[in-house]
Amino acid sequence: RGARRMTEEVAPHGTVRHGTARHESERYGEREQMVTAPSQREDLVHRMDIHLSSIGFHCLGLTLADTRLAAEDIEARAFEASTAASTDEVVRVYVRVAAELLCAEARRLGGGGDG
Questions:
Q1: Rounded to the nearest 5°, which phi and psi values hold at 29?
Q2: Where do the record's region annotations for Disordered lie (predicted)?
Q3: How far apart are CA 102 and CA 75, in angstroms?
Q4: Residue 70's CB: how many other CB atoms inside 10 A?
Q5: What is the 3-state secondary structure (H, E, C) of the chain?
Q6: What is the reported pLDDT for 46?
Q7: What residues have CB less than 8 Å from 89, skipping those under 6 apart?
Q8: Residues 2 and 18 in one domain
C-alpha cells in the first residue's frame, strides 16, 4: 500500500485546502505506468505495425513484410531509451524515439536515404 502524505493544495481561486490525503503512488507512479503498462506498449507496437504497412503501400507502392517484427524492435529500443530519461521526460522521450525509429525503418524498407 502506498503511504499517505498530508498536503496543502491551492485551489484555482487561491484558497488553500489543508489535509488532503494523497497516495504516493498517485503522485510518483502515474508517469511510469503510462509507459510501462504492457497494454500501452502493445498498443504502440500495433499502431506502428499499421503505420509501417501504410507507409509502404501509400508512399512506396510496396507491400512490406515483417512490419510487426520491425514495430516490436522499434518499441523495445524506444522503451530502452526512455528508461534512461528522468521520470518527467519518460513519455516524451519514449514517443519521440519511437517516431524517429519508425521514420528510419520506413526509409530503410523503402530503400531510401535521408529523405
A1: -95, -15
A2: 1-37
A3: 9
A4: 21
A5: CCCEEEEEEECCCCCEEEEEEEEHHHHHCHHHHHHHCHHHHHHHHHHHHHHHHHHHHHHHCCCCCCHHHHHHHHHHHHHHHHHCCCCCCHHHHHHHHHHHHHHHHHHHHCCCCCC
A6: 92
A7: 82
A8: yes
The grid cell for 10 is 491551492
Residue for cell digits 522503451?
A: 79
Hey, what amino acid is at 32? E
Q: What is d(CA 109, CA 115) in angstroms, rounded to the nearest whole number? A: 13
Q: What is the pLDDT of residue 78?
A: 85
Residue 22 backbone phi and psi in degrees, to 5: -140, 135
Average pLDDT over residues 6-29: 45
| Residue 60 binned pLDDT confidence (cut-offs 50, 70, 90) | confident
Domain range for residue 22? 1-29
Q: Is the pLDDT of residue 83 over 80?
A: no
Whether 42 and 64 map to the same domain: the answer is yes
39 or 111: which leads in pLDDT: 39
